Amino acid sequence: MIGLQHYLVLAAALFSLGILGLLTRRNAVNVMMSIELILNAANVNLVAFSRYATGNMGGQLFGVFVIVVAASEVAVALAIILTLYRLRRTPNLDEADILKG
Amino acid sequence: MTAEAAVFWAFAIVTVGSAAVVVFSRTLIYSAFALLFTFFGVAGLYVLLGADFLAATQLLIYVGGILVLLLFGVMLTHKIYDLDLKTETTQLASGLIVAAGLFVILATTGLRTQWMSVPRTPVPTTAEIGRLFLGQYLLPFEAASVLLLVALLGAAMIVRRRRDA
Questions:
Q1: Which of residues 60-89 of A touch B (CB under 8 A)?
Q2: Which residue in B70, B94, B155 is closest to A33 by CB distance?
């Protein structure tokens, strides 16, 4: 019998993998992919709670909003990465230290 | 094992396995294509949870939009003769410790907590979501549309080449 807790553990695994990618990858596009993993993990949790715990549609509606925010986040982040690449000729995040005093 | 359990485990393996490829692959293109399978797996989980509208949205926006944008990001930030597109990882050991600790905390919290249980019987959700968006959730809906507009303008503003520079 598949229940809420199966989905919670699955989302925890997805979230931890995203955090791992966020901490270890140097390429900015790879970091964006890790952020998408984290957002998807949160969404799985929301939809699972909507199905098993609250009995209403709130979780699914919030999931739609998460997808909207993810789309706009990717657009702006890609713009920043492209500008950075034009400036520095590298997609590596730890070489983007222009603001360092 | 019931059919539901079999389908759940199949999608779970696809999702987590390809997410691991996204994080551990050293070639950027492999990461992007593994992300495709993660998105498909999550969409399958939505179907299993009775969220048919959200599953379709996931496929349209994540696979059709966000993944294509990410592939553009890969393409535009590498020189065209840079064929292998290798990326490096830093601090793998400490990152693994943090991620594993986080997983243990989240998973035990999920397993130990006594969640309230009001199961919703899966029914088609699209009509209901439309009613809620234009009724109870109208203000967040409009705010989301303004957010999309501002993000679009902001992205265009950031990437445009300035004439004086």
A1: 60-61, 63-65, 67-76, 78-83, 85
A2: B70
**CA–CA separation, B131 and B127 (whole Å):** 6
Q: What is the residue-level pLDDT of chain B in tens, covering all 165 positions?
A: 688 899 999 999 999 999 999 998 888 888 999 999 999 999 999 999 988 999 999 999 998 889 998 888 888 877 655 555 566 677 888 889 999 999 999 999 989 988 888 877 778 888 989 999 999 999 999 999 999 999 999 999 988 877 655
pTM equals: 0.90
Which two structure tokens, joined as six digits, stand for A100?
């360092």
CB B51 within 8 Å of CB A52: no
ipTM of the complex: 0.90
Q: Which residue has the tokens 């590596």?
A: A92
User: What's the CATH fold of domain B3-90+122-159?
Assistant: Four Helix Bundle (Hemerythrin (Met), subunit A) (1.20.120)
